[in-house]
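CORE FACILITY INTAKE
Project code: CF-77B
Contact: R.S. (postdoc)
Sample description: multi-component assembly, two entities in total
Requested service: structural model of the whole complex
Turnaround: standard
Below are the sequence entries exactly as provided by the requester. Do not edit them.
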Amino acid sequence: MRYLPKLSGHRLAPAPVLRWRCALFLAVLVSPALLFAQTYAADNPIPILTGNAGFFTNVVAGKTEIVSEINPVVLVPLGDHWLIEARGEFEGDFQRKDWGDGPYGGQVGKELDYLQADYIANPYVTVTVGRFLTPFGIYNERLYPIWIRDLQSTPLIFPIGTGSSNGVMFRGGLPLNAKVNLNYATYFSVASTNDTLDSDRTAGGRAGLFFPGPRIEVGASWQKLLQEERTNAFGFHFAWQPTPLPLNLRSEYARSDLGSGYWIEAAYRLSQIPGWNKFMRRAEVVGRVQQLFAGHVDEDDAEEYGLPDVNTQEADFGLNYYLHDGLKATASYGRQFNSDGNFNLWNVGIAYRFALPLGRPGLQ
Amino acid sequence: MTKRLTIITTLWIAALISVATAAIPPRNSNSPAGPPTVSKVQDADAMRLEGEKRFRANCGRCHAAPQKFPPRMMATILRHMRVRATITDEDMRLVLYYMTQ
C-alpha cells in the first residue's frame, strides 16, 4: 500500500513536461479560434472605456467661472445581443470667493447619467432596462457630450423633458423604404428620490423620420408626468446636413408647464475656403439663436430645474478648431436678453474625447 | 388606476411584439455585428463606398469623423451608436465595414 502514491505519481509526467503538454494542447485548441477572431475581429467586440474631458473658462455677466469636467463611459458588450453601458459625470465649478477677491473655490458635482442594459432583440427593436437618458428631443441623447456639442452652453429649453429616467425603454431604427428611415423610442420611468438615481414617474416617447438622400431629420417627442400635476410636455426637432455644403443645421422646440421655447443652430466647417485650406478645414464657425417663454413656475422651482423664470432671448457665436481627431479648442461669445437685465457670456476651453480598449483590440 | 393598467398593458404588448419579432430571422443579416451581407452591394469597394456614404449621413449628423479604431473596438462603438442614435441594422453593418477596412 505504501507504494501506491509513488506508482500513481510515476504515471504522471514530471511537472515541467506536463505544463508544456497542456500549453501545446491549449494552443492547438485555441489557435483556430484566434485565427477566426482575427478574420472576423469585428464580430468579437471588446469592452472599452471611452468618454470625454474638458476644461473651460466662462465669464457670465462679468463673473469668471472655471469648469473642469470628465465624463467616463464604459461599454461592455456581451455576446451578440447585449450591451451594458454607463456614463458618469464629474464636473467641478470653481468661482472666486469673497465677492470676487478671494481664491477660486467650489464643488465637484457627481452624477450617474446612465447605467443600462441593452438587449438587441432583432434589427428593429432594442430593449433597454436600467437608468437611461430620457429620449426627448435630440440634444440630450446625441449632442450633449462636450466633444460633440458645437457651443458649450446648453440651450435654454434643455431642462424641459430631458435628464435621466429609471425603467424600461423600447427603441430602434428601421428603413420604411429606400428613401426614409424611421427611428423611435418609447419608455416608462419610475419615480426615485435617491440622489444618484433621481427620476420622475413618467411615460413618453420620440419618433423621427430620417431622409438619407437630402440628410434631413424631423421628429416629435412627448412626455407625460405620472405624478403631482400630471402635466404633458412635447417637442419637435429638425436637423439638416445639406450634401453639397459642410453645414449642419439643427433646431428644437419644446413646450411644457415649465415654459416653452426653441433654438436654431448652424455650424459651418470652413473646409471649402480656398485659401489656407490646411488650417481652415479644421475650423468651424457656429451661430445659435434661442428664445424661452417662462412658464407657470416660481423662482425657486425655475432655479431647481435650471430654467430662467422670465422670458429670455439669447444669441451665441462660436469658433471651434479641431486640433486633431477628438481634441477640440472652442471659444464663443453670447448675449442674453431678459427683463432681469442683459449680460454677456464668454467661453473658451478645450474638449478631448478618449477611447481605450479593455481587451485585445484586434488587428487594424 | 385605469391609466396605470393601460400603460402596463401597452408595455406588455410591446414586449410581446419584441419577443415575437426576435424569433423571425432578420433580413440581410446573420448576427448583429457580423460581416455585412447586403445583397445589393456585391464587391468590397462598393461596400466601402456605401459604408462611407452611410457614415456621413448617419454619424456626420452629430459629430466630426473620428479616427478608425481597431476592429473589435469599432464593433463595440458601433453597437453603442446603434442604440444611442437609433440607426438601422443595415446602416450599422455598412458603417462597421467601412470603419474596419
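Facility notes:
- The longest helix of chain B spans residues 2-22.
- The CA atoms of residues 1 and 56 of chain B lie 47 Å apart.
Invoice: internal transfer
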